[in-house]
Write a structure and sequence with these properties.
Largest sheet: 9 strands, mixed
Organism: Streblomastix strix
Protein name: SPRY domain-containing protein
Order of helices and strands: HEEEEEEEEEEEEEEEHEHEH
CATH class of the largest domain: Mainly Beta
Length: 387
């Protein structure tokens, strides 16, 4: 083959190679564009969901204000046409909360950065970072919601007292901060006063796990007495909650893994609480040390001493109502007291027709003893009536 023919063949090969490389580059660019479009669509979907929830909350508040104004107008004996009617005194709630009003307190900007509504962990390391958020929450009913974009060994959301300050590389419970924070981790456990985050047996089980792209929400009610914290996963209320939380709190998020992202989807005040009664609900008190399966352990440790005091006998056919979302010994006393005051001739045997182990109900041991003592009185009254 002549030299000119070889040169021509080489040029042809170079040309074909260039065409193949250009084609590969075009396909790569196309895939990247499609990926960006998919990510944009997902972000837009979350944004729209957050916007829908915000508008629903605003609508509910407007309906509430309208209903109150109508009641005032009807009940007023001499309406003043030149004077606007304001709703009756209700707890003041901030109405201007939004994701844009969030300011993260990031211990090390080289590890985690904040972009629009995302906390993004660096790709360079797996350093710990516990991020608090301003503003401080001290009034109203406020909901903070977001999701992790991928799996990580440890993920936490929760609240912390305003005195808490996190240094770079800190766990959320570092330096006694476990006593001033409540954490909900991706395994479904909540923790408080843990001394060391690795002591998993100190966690309270019962809430659902949250996986990548599942929305996790913390809702605090600073208008209720006591103040309360509830958790939600994909909008579904979780059974384990916390009461007597501090009067001023910040929301927190913990990140540890390379490239891990937490996206905030909601930060807003609500006109009314989202909380309702759910199956298996239990409330744990802030400031008290919790044990894993607190009620089960407390009961089992003392059960052999006096089995009788840990059981409550319910009168057949009596339904114990709950006061709000928590069952209390007062509500049981009220139901039984109403039954006795009817002067019905009830045989004592009816008090023993149904036994329910108290560990299935949200009581502490002090309340258990109070209920038991009351039931002794109730039994005495029934005996006297029958005899």
């Amino acid at each position: 083959m002549s030299e000119s023919a070889q040169d021509q063949e080489i040029q042809e090969l170079k040309k074909k190679l260039k065409e193949v490389e250009e084609q590969r580059e075009q396909e790569k660019n196309q895939r990247e564009r499609e990926k960006r479009r998919a990510n944009f669509a997902e972000d837009e979907n979350h944004r729209l969901l957050a916007e829908v929830e915000r508008l629903r909350a605003q609508l509910a508040q407007r309906n509430q204000e309208s209903a109150i104004a109508q009641i005032q107008t009807r009940s007023s004996p001499s309406p003043q046409p030149h004077r606007s009617h304001s709703p009756p005194s209700i707890p003041t709630v901030p109405l201007n909360l939004s994701i844009t009003s969030l300011t993260p307190i990031i211990p090390n900007q080289d590890v985690v950065r904040w972009t629009e509504n995302k906390l993004i962990h660096t790709a360079d390391n797996n350093d710990l970072s516990t991020v608090l958020f301003n503003p401080i929450i001290s009034s109203g009913i406020v909901r903070f919601e977001g999701f992790y974009d991928s799996d990580a060994k440890t993920q936490h959301v929760g609240i912390a007292d305003t005195s808490v300050v996190y240094s770079p590389g800190c766990w959320p419970d570092t330096d006694e901060n476990d006593k001033k924070s409540v954490l909900y981790d991706s395994s479904g456990d909540i923790s408080h006063i843990q001394n060391n985050i690795q002591y998993g047996n100190m966690y309270i089980r019962g809430n659902g796990k949250f996986e990548p792209n599942k929305r996790i929400a913390c809702e605090v009610n600073m208008t209720s007495t006591p103040k309360r914290l509830h958790f939600f996963v994909n909008g579904e209320q979780q059974p384990i909650s916390v009461v007597n939380i501090p009067s001023q709190i910040r929301f927190l998020v913990f990140l540890q893994a390379k490239n891990l992202t937490f996206t905030v989807t909601r930060f807003e005040s609500l006109p009314i609480s989202s909380v309702k009664q759910v199956r298996g609900q239990k409330a744990f008190e802030y400031g008290k040390k919790w044990l894993s399966d607190d009620y089960d352990k407390s009961l089992s440790s003392s059960e052999s001493e006096n089995d009788e005091q840990y059981y409550i006998n319910f009168v057949e056919g009596v339904t114990v109502q709950t006061d709000g979302i928590y069952s209390t010994h007062e509500s049981i006393q009220l139901e039984l007291d109403q039954l006795i005051t009817k002067d019905e001739l009830l045989p004592l045997a009816l008090l023993d027709t149904m036994e329910i182990v108290l560990k299935m109900l949200p009581f502490n041991l002090v309340q258990i003893n109070q209920v038991f003592q009351f039931l002794i009185i109730v039994k005495s009254k029934v005996v006297m009536v029958v005899n």
